[in-house]
Amino acid sequence: MRVLYLYCHPVEESFHGSIKTAATAALARAGHAVDLLDLYAEGFEPVLSAEGRRTYHDESVNQRGLEDYVARLRAAEGLVVQFPTWCFGPPAMLKGFFDRLFMPGVAFDISDPAKVRPLLQNIQKVIGVSTYGRPRSRAFLVGDPPRKIVKRYLRWFVARTASVQYLALYHMNVAPEAKRKAFIAEVGRAMERF
Amino acid sequence: MRALVVHAHPVAESFNRSLNRHVCETLEACGHEVRNLDLYAMDFAPVMSTAERLGYHDEGTNIAPVREHLEHLAWCTGLVFVYPTWWYAQPAILKGWLDRVLIPHVTFSMPVGNRPVQPRLQHIGCIGGVSTYGAPWLWTRWVGDPGRRIIMRGIRALVHPRAKSFWAAHYQMDSSTPESRRAFMAEVEKKLRALPLEVPSQPVRMQLD
What are the two backbone dihedrals, phi and then psi, of residue B111, each rounded to the nearest 5 degrees? Predict the structure, then answer.
Protein backbone atom coordinates (compact mmCIF):
# COMPACT_ATOMS: atom_id res chain seq x y z
CA MET A 1 0.00 0.00 0.00
CA ARG A 2 1.15 3.55 -0.63
CA VAL A 3 1.05 5.28 2.76
CA LEU A 4 1.16 9.05 3.22
CA TYR A 5 2.81 9.65 6.59
CA LEU A 6 1.76 13.11 7.73
CA TYR A 7 4.14 14.07 10.48
CA CYS A 8 4.18 17.18 12.65
CA HIS A 9 6.87 17.86 15.23
CA PRO A 10 9.61 20.52 15.25
CA VAL A 11 12.32 18.56 17.09
CA GLU A 12 14.00 15.70 15.25
CA GLU A 13 15.58 14.17 18.39
CA SER A 14 12.26 14.24 20.31
CA PHE A 15 10.15 11.29 21.42
CA HIS A 16 8.00 11.94 18.35
CA GLY A 17 11.10 11.67 16.16
CA SER A 18 11.72 8.21 17.66
CA ILE A 19 8.12 7.14 17.08
CA LYS A 20 8.31 8.29 13.46
CA THR A 21 11.57 6.43 12.82
CA ALA A 22 10.18 3.20 14.29
CA ALA A 23 6.82 3.55 12.54
CA THR A 24 8.15 4.30 9.06
CA ALA A 25 10.65 1.42 9.39
CA ALA A 26 7.82 -0.94 10.41
CA LEU A 27 5.71 0.17 7.43
CA ALA A 28 8.65 -0.43 5.07
CA ARG A 29 9.27 -3.89 6.61
CA ALA A 30 5.64 -4.74 5.95
CA GLY A 31 6.17 -3.89 2.29
CA HIS A 32 4.44 -0.51 2.14
CA ALA A 33 5.72 2.46 0.16
CA VAL A 34 6.00 5.37 2.60
CA ASP A 35 5.67 8.98 1.50
CA LEU A 36 6.87 10.95 4.53
CA LEU A 37 5.33 14.41 4.64
CA ASP A 38 7.23 16.14 7.44
CA LEU A 39 5.42 19.47 7.71
CA TYR A 40 8.17 21.22 9.67
CA ALA A 41 11.00 19.85 7.50
CA GLU A 42 9.17 20.85 4.32
CA GLY A 43 8.48 24.32 5.69
CA PHE A 44 4.74 24.07 5.15
CA GLU A 45 2.95 27.43 5.45
CA PRO A 46 -0.14 26.73 7.59
CA VAL A 47 -1.85 30.12 7.39
CA LEU A 48 -4.71 30.40 4.90
CA SER A 49 -4.13 33.84 3.35
CA ALA A 50 -6.72 36.43 2.37
CA GLU A 51 -6.17 35.48 -1.29
CA GLY A 52 -6.46 31.76 -0.41
CA ARG A 53 -9.67 32.38 1.50
CA ARG A 54 -11.21 34.42 -1.33
CA THR A 55 -10.54 31.69 -3.90
CA TYR A 56 -11.14 28.75 -1.54
CA HIS A 57 -14.35 27.71 -3.32
CA ASP A 58 -13.03 28.32 -6.85
CA GLU A 59 -11.80 24.91 -7.99
CA SER A 60 -10.07 26.36 -11.05
CA VAL A 61 -7.48 28.17 -8.89
CA ASN A 62 -7.73 26.99 -5.28
CA GLN A 63 -4.94 24.38 -5.63
CA ARG A 64 -2.41 26.91 -6.89
CA GLY A 65 0.89 26.51 -5.06
CA LEU A 66 -0.36 23.37 -3.32
CA GLU A 67 -0.26 21.00 -6.33
CA ASP A 68 2.44 18.78 -4.85
CA TYR A 69 0.52 18.23 -1.60
CA VAL A 70 -2.72 17.58 -3.50
CA ALA A 71 -1.00 14.99 -5.69
CA ARG A 72 0.39 13.21 -2.63
CA LEU A 73 -3.01 13.16 -0.92
CA ARG A 74 -4.61 11.73 -4.05
CA ALA A 75 -1.89 9.09 -4.51
CA ALA A 76 -2.27 7.79 -0.94
CA GLU A 77 -3.96 4.48 -0.24
CA GLY A 78 -3.24 4.71 3.46
CA LEU A 79 -2.80 7.69 5.79
CA VAL A 80 -0.89 8.05 9.05
CA VAL A 81 -1.16 11.29 11.01
CA GLN A 82 1.32 11.74 13.85
CA PHE A 83 1.42 14.80 16.09
CA PRO A 84 1.75 15.96 19.71
CA THR A 85 -1.30 17.40 21.45
CA TRP A 86 -0.63 21.07 22.20
CA CYS A 87 -3.18 23.15 24.05
CA PHE A 88 -5.73 20.30 23.81
CA GLY A 89 -5.54 19.97 20.01
CA PRO A 90 -3.22 19.43 17.05
CA PRO A 91 -0.42 22.00 16.64
CA ALA A 92 -1.12 25.01 14.40
CA MET A 93 1.12 23.51 11.72
CA LEU A 94 -1.11 20.45 11.31
CA LYS A 95 -4.34 22.41 11.75
CA GLY A 96 -3.21 24.64 8.90
CA PHE A 97 -2.63 21.61 6.66
CA PHE A 98 -6.32 20.73 7.04
CA ASP A 99 -7.39 24.39 6.68
CA ARG A 100 -5.52 24.75 3.38
CA LEU A 101 -5.57 21.28 1.78
CA PHE A 102 -9.01 19.99 2.69
CA MET A 103 -10.63 22.26 0.14
CA PRO A 104 -13.40 21.89 -2.42
CA GLY A 105 -12.33 19.71 -5.34
CA VAL A 106 -9.66 17.97 -3.27
CA ALA A 107 -11.21 16.66 -0.07
CA PHE A 108 -14.88 17.18 -0.83
CA ASP A 109 -17.28 18.03 -3.63
CA ILE A 110 -19.64 20.87 -2.84
CA SER A 111 -21.08 21.32 -6.36
CA ASP A 112 -24.43 20.33 -4.86
CA PRO A 113 -24.40 22.18 -1.50
CA ALA A 114 -27.34 20.11 -0.30
CA LYS A 115 -25.29 16.96 -0.77
CA VAL A 116 -21.63 17.46 -0.01
CA ARG A 117 -19.56 14.38 -0.92
CA PRO A 118 -16.17 13.27 0.40
CA LEU A 119 -13.40 12.88 -2.21
CA LEU A 120 -10.56 11.06 -0.49
CA GLN A 121 -11.96 7.57 -1.06
CA ASN A 122 -8.56 6.50 -2.34
CA ILE A 123 -7.59 6.23 1.33
CA GLN A 124 -8.42 2.74 2.64
CA LYS A 125 -6.92 2.96 6.09
CA VAL A 126 -6.10 5.68 8.63
CA ILE A 127 -3.98 5.53 11.77
CA GLY A 128 -3.69 8.54 14.08
CA VAL A 129 -0.84 8.70 16.59
CA SER A 130 -0.73 11.34 19.29
CA THR A 131 0.71 12.09 22.72
CA TYR A 132 -0.73 14.23 25.50
CA GLY A 133 1.06 16.01 28.33
CA ARG A 134 -1.91 15.57 30.62
CA PRO A 135 -3.91 12.55 31.80
CA ARG A 136 -6.73 11.02 29.80
CA SER A 137 -9.32 12.28 32.31
CA ARG A 138 -8.34 15.86 31.47
CA ALA A 139 -8.45 15.18 27.72
CA PHE A 140 -11.88 13.60 28.20
CA LEU A 141 -13.23 16.72 29.94
CA VAL A 142 -12.19 18.81 26.95
CA GLY A 143 -13.78 16.26 24.60
CA ASP A 144 -10.42 14.82 23.46
CA PRO A 145 -10.24 16.85 20.22
CA PRO A 146 -7.26 14.96 18.70
CA ARG A 147 -9.04 11.60 19.02
CA LYS A 148 -12.26 12.97 17.52
CA ILE A 149 -10.37 14.73 14.73
CA VAL A 150 -8.97 11.35 13.66
CA LYS A 151 -11.94 9.10 14.38
CA ARG A 152 -14.81 11.36 13.33
CA TYR A 153 -13.49 14.26 11.24
CA LEU A 154 -10.91 12.42 9.08
CA ARG A 155 -13.11 9.33 8.83
CA TRP A 156 -15.73 11.24 6.86
CA PHE A 157 -13.36 12.02 3.96
CA VAL A 158 -11.92 8.56 3.34
CA ALA A 159 -13.33 5.33 1.91
CA ARG A 160 -16.54 4.24 3.60
CA THR A 161 -15.03 0.85 4.41
CA ALA A 162 -11.74 2.26 5.68
CA SER A 163 -10.56 1.22 9.11
CA VAL A 164 -9.65 4.16 11.33
CA GLN A 165 -7.41 3.51 14.29
CA TYR A 166 -6.15 5.90 16.96
CA LEU A 167 -3.14 5.30 19.17
CA ALA A 168 -2.53 7.67 22.06
CA LEU A 169 -0.10 8.04 24.93
CA TYR A 170 -1.62 10.15 27.70
CA HIS A 171 0.09 11.88 30.62
CA MET A 172 3.47 12.28 28.94
CA ASN A 173 4.41 14.88 31.59
CA VAL A 174 5.10 12.04 33.99
CA ALA A 175 5.41 9.00 31.68
CA PRO A 176 8.32 6.75 32.71
CA GLU A 177 10.81 5.53 30.11
CA ALA A 178 9.24 2.04 30.07
CA LYS A 179 5.83 3.41 29.18
CA ARG A 180 7.30 5.46 26.34
CA LYS A 181 9.16 2.47 24.96
CA ALA A 182 6.03 0.34 25.17
CA PHE A 183 4.15 2.97 23.19
CA ILE A 184 6.77 3.01 20.42
CA ALA A 185 6.50 -0.80 20.28
CA GLU A 186 2.70 -0.59 20.12
CA VAL A 187 2.86 1.90 17.23
CA GLY A 188 5.39 -0.31 15.46
CA ARG A 189 3.11 -3.36 15.74
CA ALA A 190 0.15 -1.39 14.38
CA MET A 191 2.25 -0.26 11.41
CA GLU A 192 3.41 -3.81 10.68
CA ARG A 193 -0.25 -4.81 10.44
CA PHE A 194 -1.14 -1.78 8.30
CA MET B 1 -13.59 44.64 32.74
CA ARG B 2 -10.50 44.97 30.58
CA ALA B 3 -11.33 42.85 27.55
CA LEU B 4 -8.77 41.31 25.24
CA VAL B 5 -10.54 40.49 21.98
CA VAL B 6 -8.48 38.06 19.90
CA HIS B 7 -9.56 37.93 16.28
CA ALA B 8 -8.51 35.76 13.33
CA HIS B 9 -9.93 36.15 9.84
CA PRO B 10 -7.89 36.91 6.73
CA VAL B 11 -10.50 38.81 4.70
CA ALA B 12 -11.19 42.48 5.49
CA GLU B 13 -14.72 42.51 4.04
CA SER B 14 -15.77 39.26 5.74
CA PHE B 15 -18.72 38.85 8.08
CA ASN B 16 -16.31 37.66 10.72
CA ARG B 17 -14.39 40.94 10.58
CA SER B 18 -17.70 42.78 11.07
CA LEU B 19 -18.39 40.58 14.08
CA ASN B 20 -15.01 41.50 15.51
CA ARG B 21 -15.79 45.22 15.15
CA HIS B 22 -19.26 44.69 16.60
CA VAL B 23 -17.86 42.87 19.63
CA CYS B 24 -15.29 45.59 20.31
CA GLU B 25 -17.76 48.44 19.83
CA THR B 26 -20.43 46.82 21.98
CA LEU B 27 -18.00 46.15 24.82
CA GLU B 28 -16.75 49.74 24.67
CA ALA B 29 -20.30 51.09 24.59
CA CYS B 30 -20.99 49.07 27.75
CA GLY B 31 -18.06 50.78 29.49
CA HIS B 32 -15.43 48.03 29.23
CA GLU B 33 -11.87 48.76 28.20
CA VAL B 34 -10.97 46.92 25.00
CA ARG B 35 -7.79 45.77 23.33
CA ASN B 36 -8.21 44.12 19.94
CA LEU B 37 -5.60 41.65 18.72
CA ASP B 38 -6.10 41.06 15.01
CA LEU B 39 -3.75 38.15 14.38
CA TYR B 40 -3.81 38.43 10.58
CA ALA B 41 -3.25 42.19 10.63
CA MET B 42 -0.25 41.78 12.94
CA ASP B 43 1.03 38.89 10.79
CA PHE B 44 1.28 36.64 13.82
CA ALA B 45 3.58 33.64 13.26
CA PRO B 46 1.67 30.60 14.58
CA VAL B 47 4.34 27.94 14.10
CA MET B 48 6.25 27.03 17.24
CA SER B 49 9.84 26.76 16.01
CA THR B 50 12.36 24.10 16.94
CA ALA B 51 14.25 26.51 19.23
CA GLU B 52 11.03 27.64 20.90
CA ARG B 53 9.88 24.06 21.45
CA LEU B 54 13.25 23.14 22.98
CA GLY B 55 12.94 26.09 25.40
CA TYR B 56 9.20 25.66 26.02
CA HIS B 57 9.60 24.29 29.56
CA ASP B 58 12.40 26.66 30.65
CA GLU B 59 11.01 28.92 33.33
CA GLY B 60 11.85 32.55 32.68
CA THR B 61 13.34 32.25 29.21
CA ASN B 62 10.22 30.74 27.61
CA ILE B 63 8.59 34.16 27.97
CA ALA B 64 10.82 35.98 25.47
CA PRO B 65 9.30 34.78 22.16
CA VAL B 66 5.77 35.88 23.14
CA ARG B 67 6.32 38.55 25.81
CA GLU B 68 4.12 41.12 24.07
CA HIS B 69 1.17 38.69 24.06
CA LEU B 70 1.70 37.62 27.66
CA GLU B 71 1.60 41.29 28.66
CA HIS B 72 -1.80 41.58 26.97
CA LEU B 73 -2.95 38.47 28.86
CA ALA B 74 -1.71 39.89 32.16
CA TRP B 75 -3.50 43.18 31.42
CA CYS B 76 -6.92 41.75 30.68
CA THR B 77 -9.67 40.54 33.00
CA GLY B 78 -11.79 39.24 30.13
CA LEU B 79 -10.74 37.10 27.17
CA VAL B 80 -12.91 36.93 24.06
CA PHE B 81 -12.21 35.09 20.80
CA VAL B 82 -13.80 36.02 17.47
CA TYR B 83 -12.98 33.65 14.61
CA PRO B 84 -14.42 31.36 11.95
CA THR B 85 -14.52 27.68 12.89
CA TRP B 86 -12.63 25.91 10.11
CA TRP B 87 -12.84 22.15 10.25
CA TYR B 88 -14.39 22.22 13.73
CA ALA B 89 -11.65 24.30 15.36
CA GLN B 90 -9.62 27.52 15.35
CA PRO B 91 -7.82 28.60 12.15
CA ALA B 92 -4.11 27.71 12.30
CA ILE B 93 -3.10 31.30 13.08
CA LEU B 94 -5.25 31.29 16.24
CA LYS B 95 -4.42 27.71 17.22
CA GLY B 96 -0.78 28.78 17.04
CA TRP B 97 -1.47 31.76 19.28
CA LEU B 98 -2.84 29.35 21.90
CA ASP B 99 0.07 26.91 21.35
CA ARG B 100 2.72 29.60 21.75
CA VAL B 101 1.24 32.02 24.30
CA LEU B 102 -0.30 29.67 26.87
CA ILE B 103 3.09 28.56 28.17
CA PRO B 104 3.94 26.65 31.35
CA HIS B 105 5.10 28.38 34.57
CA VAL B 106 3.37 31.59 33.41
CA THR B 107 -0.20 30.63 32.49
CA PHE B 108 -0.20 27.31 34.38
CA SER B 109 2.25 25.38 36.55
CA MET B 110 3.65 21.98 35.61
CA PRO B 111 2.64 18.98 37.76
CA VAL B 112 4.87 18.20 40.74
CA GLY B 113 4.51 14.73 42.26
CA ASN B 114 0.80 14.11 42.75
CA ARG B 115 -0.05 17.77 42.40
CA PRO B 116 -1.57 18.25 38.94
CA VAL B 117 -1.32 21.27 36.67
CA GLN B 118 -2.33 24.48 38.51
CA PRO B 119 -3.96 27.43 36.74
CA ARG B 120 -2.34 30.88 36.81
CA LEU B 121 -4.86 33.05 34.97
CA GLN B 122 -7.30 33.62 37.85
CA HIS B 123 -7.22 37.37 37.22
CA ILE B 124 -9.38 36.64 34.16
CA GLY B 125 -13.03 36.62 35.18
CA CYS B 126 -14.73 36.35 31.82
CA ILE B 127 -14.13 34.04 28.90
CA GLY B 128 -16.11 33.73 25.72
CA GLY B 129 -16.20 33.21 22.01
CA VAL B 130 -18.06 34.28 18.90
CA SER B 131 -17.69 31.91 15.98
CA THR B 132 -19.12 31.11 12.57
CA TYR B 133 -19.33 27.47 11.46
CA GLY B 134 -19.67 25.97 7.99
CA ALA B 135 -21.01 22.75 9.47
CA PRO B 136 -24.51 22.33 10.90
CA TRP B 137 -25.10 22.03 14.65
CA LEU B 138 -25.56 18.26 14.61
CA TRP B 139 -22.29 17.54 12.79
CA THR B 140 -20.48 19.93 15.06
CA ARG B 141 -21.82 18.06 18.10
CA TRP B 142 -20.83 14.71 16.59
CA VAL B 143 -17.22 15.80 16.10
CA GLY B 144 -17.30 17.22 19.64
CA ASP B 145 -16.99 20.92 18.73
CA PRO B 146 -13.23 20.87 19.44
CA GLY B 147 -12.80 24.60 18.89
CA ARG B 148 -15.39 25.59 21.48
CA ARG B 149 -14.26 22.98 23.98
CA ILE B 150 -10.59 23.97 23.76
CA ILE B 151 -11.63 27.45 24.87
CA MET B 152 -14.66 26.80 27.07
CA ARG B 153 -13.26 23.78 28.92
CA GLY B 154 -9.51 23.74 28.35
CA ILE B 155 -8.67 27.41 28.78
CA ARG B 156 -11.69 27.94 31.03
CA ALA B 157 -9.94 25.75 33.61
CA LEU B 158 -7.01 28.19 33.75
CA VAL B 159 -9.04 31.29 34.58
CA HIS B 160 -11.05 32.39 37.65
CA PRO B 161 -13.21 29.54 39.01
CA ARG B 162 -16.31 31.77 38.97
CA ALA B 163 -15.57 33.38 35.61
CA LYS B 164 -18.51 34.50 33.49
CA SER B 165 -18.64 32.70 30.20
CA PHE B 166 -20.53 32.91 26.94
CA TRP B 167 -20.47 31.33 23.51
CA ALA B 168 -22.25 32.47 20.36
CA ALA B 169 -22.31 30.32 17.22
CA HIS B 170 -23.73 30.84 13.76
CA TYR B 171 -23.90 27.41 12.08
CA GLN B 172 -24.14 26.67 8.35
CA MET B 173 -22.59 29.95 7.26
CA ASP B 174 -22.57 28.83 3.62
CA SER B 175 -26.36 29.06 3.56
CA SER B 176 -26.62 32.12 5.84
CA THR B 177 -28.95 34.97 4.87
CA PRO B 178 -28.86 38.70 5.66
CA GLU B 179 -31.58 37.96 8.26
CA SER B 180 -29.67 35.12 9.91
CA ARG B 181 -26.54 37.27 10.08
CA ARG B 182 -28.46 40.24 11.53
CA ALA B 183 -30.09 37.96 14.09
CA PHE B 184 -26.69 36.61 15.03
CA MET B 185 -25.26 40.10 15.47
CA ALA B 186 -28.17 40.85 17.80
CA GLU B 187 -27.61 37.61 19.73
CA VAL B 188 -23.92 38.48 20.19
CA GLU B 189 -24.78 41.98 21.37
CA LYS B 190 -27.30 40.64 23.86
CA LYS B 191 -24.76 38.23 25.33
CA LEU B 192 -22.15 40.97 25.63
CA ARG B 193 -24.58 43.42 27.22
CA ALA B 194 -25.45 40.82 29.85
CA LEU B 195 -21.84 40.81 31.13
CA PRO B 196 -21.24 42.70 34.39
CA LEU B 197 -18.91 45.71 34.41
CA GLU B 198 -16.91 44.13 37.21
CA VAL B 199 -16.00 40.47 36.77
CA PRO B 200 -14.55 38.14 39.43
CA SER B 201 -10.81 38.65 39.55
CA GLN B 202 -7.86 37.62 41.69
CA PRO B 203 -4.45 39.31 41.83
CA VAL B 204 -2.34 38.61 38.75
CA ARG B 205 -0.14 35.52 39.27
CA MET B 206 1.65 35.64 35.94
CA GLN B 207 5.26 36.60 36.49
CA LEU B 208 6.86 38.23 33.48
CA ASP B 209 9.99 39.69 35.07
Answer: -65, 140
